[in-house]
Amino acid sequence: MEANHWELADQYLTERYIQHNPNTANGLTAVVHFFTEILKVKPIPIPEKIKTKVVSVVAEGDIVTFAFVRVLKHPKDPSKTYTTTWFDQWRFVDGKADEHWDNDVITN
What pLDDT digit, counting tens, does each position of 27-45 carry? Predict the structure, then answer.
């Protein structure tokens, strides 16, 4: 995901991939469309190690939760930033992500 190689998504996500984020629809095709056509991410070389600052990875049964550092612009003063922890959580089926939760929700 960090390198945006969505052409490889079928190796890591199930066809039915359930997305618990209101910003994108369910299904492998929908999530690939969201990242490539809506967000228009471009692939970069896949690094040996991820660059994301990892806070924790917790796995229990078929659920894996990945917490990481995010630095965001302050909503009341865009010249300032603040640091927070975000997460992605997946449920795996037969070695592929089948369901996903995160805290990335666009608010108005």
Answer: 999 999 999 999 999 999 9
Residue 71 neighbours by CB under 8 Å, 6+ apart: 81, 82, 83
Distance between CA atoms of residues 23 and 56, nearest Å: 25
The per-residue pLDDT for range 55-102, each reduced to its tens digit, is: 999 999 999 999 999 999 999 999 999 999 999 999 999 999 999 998
- Give the span between the Cα atoms of 34 and 29, in whole angstroms: 9
CA-to-CA distance for 89 and 36, rounded, in angstroms? Answer: 21
Closest CA relative to residue 100, chosen from 90, 108, 92: 90
